[in-house]
């Protein structure tokens, strides 16, 4: 049996991997490829990028390019480790293997918390779109409906999750490809009813850096968090038919395509629409661009795409949260009841993750001014914490794998260890920038507090386990 067709390994308490028992292998290569592509394309890109454009102006292209380079490095490192040791706990397992159970505990439960809160936020966003189409209908009813649908989807066989994500991602990718095609035609002046804008929007009205370096920094911070979601593909790879081959191919093909979609979209938008057009923030940059080009029904078309993006993210985050929780429990780092498998699916973990997400929605209604804001601030920088664990783990595990099993290095990090250190330095720089900006400083503090709390609990558990062994 070749190393690229071996069965997916299951997580063990020591953080190593062993032949898969329990989780099904219902995901195909087409599922993984689309999960990799679509998982990162969400409402943060379609709507949230407007705030970054308003802050950075045309230089948002540089901001997305810089953060895109960092994400490519992180995904290459994660791809290297996941291809060498596929596991449903992904980076949590790798962190445990590199630094001990405390690191796996910290990164894993922090990521689970992030995904569960994100499920609630996405449900709220999707419900707002639905109430716009059906005035008078209660938001909570739509959230409840979506939660039930995707909880049931994730309670069933993993192939159902894969099919939902495949078609959701296909629609999102198709929408961006169509947008880029229309945008390029408009830029060169061959789209009917439009004239080529030239560089007027890029160099006029304050120039390429209208708000200077401060605007670029705000745009950079906004762009970093818009890339979150790629990690799901390495979690899903453990349940694919050919884990090693699957994650290697998915990571390789997704990186340059996502860079094209993100950076290309920003370049098209700021070339066609003045960066200070209020519609960019109010309607979202994609809708503003299509409206600017006189394409009728642009708002409703993009509302459908954003709704699909939100529902896709809900589906993927329930899946990712349940698998991360299941992996942690399998390694003795959580309540055993959460790890029980039925039909190859950790159904208790699915239910708990969904209930936690729905609880966040209820808090947004009951305590919007304090507890819900606290939740939002707490998850603000978790993705950066996860990326830091990924880079630090790869620095350790790459050398260990080269010594013990070099044949497992199916995917290799470029220019190791130089680019790994470059990525770590980039993350440190972003943490410093977050501490400088008033709007992100509080998020950094709350995320840091949660991380330190989890690390302390993890250390105590690790020492207790050491004494008992």
Automatic annotation (TrEMBL):
Q: Which residues cross the membrane?
A: 34-55, 61-78, 99-120, 140-158, 170-191, 216-238, 258-275, 295-314, 349-366, 372-397, 409-432, 444-460
Can the keyword Transport be found in this entry's annotation? yes
Q: Which UniProt keywords apply?
A: Amino-acid transport, Membrane, Transmembrane, Transmembrane helix, Transport
User: Which parts of the sequence are annotated with region: Disordered?
Assistant: 1-21
Q: Which InterPro entries match?
A: AA-permease/SLC12A_dom, Amino_acid_permease_CS
Q: Which PANTHER family match?
A: GABA PERMEASE (PTHR43495), GAMMA-AMINOBUTYRIC ACID PERMEASE (PTHR43495:SF5)
Q: What is this protein called?
A: Amino acid permease
What are the leading ranks of the lineage? Bacteria, Bacillati, Actinomycetota, Actinomycetes, Kitasatosporales
């Amino acid at each position: 049996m070749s190393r690229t067709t071996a069965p997916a390994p299951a997580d063990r308490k020591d953080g190593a991997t062993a032949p898969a028992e329990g989780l099904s292998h219902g995901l195909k290569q087409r599922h993984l490829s689309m999960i990799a592509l679509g998982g990162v394309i969400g409402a943060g890109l379609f709507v949230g990028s407007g705030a970054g454009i308003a802050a950075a102006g045309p230089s948002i292209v540089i901001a997305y390019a810089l953060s895109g380079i960092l994400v490519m490095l992180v995904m290459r490192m994660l791809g290297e480790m996941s291809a060498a040791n596929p596991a449903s706990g992904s980076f949590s397992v790798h962190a445990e293997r590199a630094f001990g159970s405390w690191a796996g505990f910290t990164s894993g439960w922090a990521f689970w918390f992030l995904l569960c809160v994100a499920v609630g936020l996405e449900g709220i966003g999707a419900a707002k779109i639905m109430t716009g189409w059906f005035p008078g209908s209660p938001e909570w009813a739509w959230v409840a409906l979506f939660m039930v649908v995707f909880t049931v989807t994730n309670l069933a066989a993993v192939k159902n999750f894969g099919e939902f994500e495949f078609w959701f991602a296909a629609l999102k990718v198709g929408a961006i490809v169509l947008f880029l095609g229309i945008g390029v035609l408009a830029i060169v002046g061959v789209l009917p009813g439009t004239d080529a804008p030239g560089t007027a929007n890029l160099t006029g009205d304050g120039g390429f850096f209208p708000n200077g370096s401060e605007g670029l920094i705000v745009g950079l911070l906004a762009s970093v968090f818009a890339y979150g979601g790629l990690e799901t593909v390495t979690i899903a790879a453990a349940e694919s038919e050919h884990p090693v081959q699957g994650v290697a191919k998915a990571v390789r093909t997704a990186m340059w395509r996502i860079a094209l979609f993100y950076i290309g979209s920003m370049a098209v938008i700021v070339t066609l629409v003045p960066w200070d057009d209020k519609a960019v923030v109010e309607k979202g940059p994609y809708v503003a661009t299509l409206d600017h080009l006189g394409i009728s029904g642009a708002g409703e078309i993009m509302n459908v795409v954003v709704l699909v993006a939100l529902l896709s993210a809900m589906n993927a985050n329930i899946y990712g949260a349940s698998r991360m929780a299941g992996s942690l429990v399998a390694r003795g780092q959580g309540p055993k009841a959460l790890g029980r498998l039925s039909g190859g699916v950790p159904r208790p973990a699915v239910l708990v993750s969904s209930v936690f997400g729905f609880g966040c929605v209820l808090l947004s209604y009951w305590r919007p001014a304090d507890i819900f804001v606290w939740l939002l601030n707490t998850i603000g920088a978790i993705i950066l914490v996860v990326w830091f664990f990924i880079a630090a783990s790869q620095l350790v595990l790459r050398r260990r794998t080269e010594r013990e099993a070099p044949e497992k290095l199916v995917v290799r990090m470029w220019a190791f260890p130089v680019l790994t250190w470059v990525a770590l330095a980039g993350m440190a720089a972003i943490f410093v920038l977050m501490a400088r900006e008033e709007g992100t400083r509080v998020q950094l503090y709350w995320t840091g507090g949660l991380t330190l709390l989890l690390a302390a609990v993890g250390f105590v558990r690790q020492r207790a386990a050491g004494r008992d062994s």
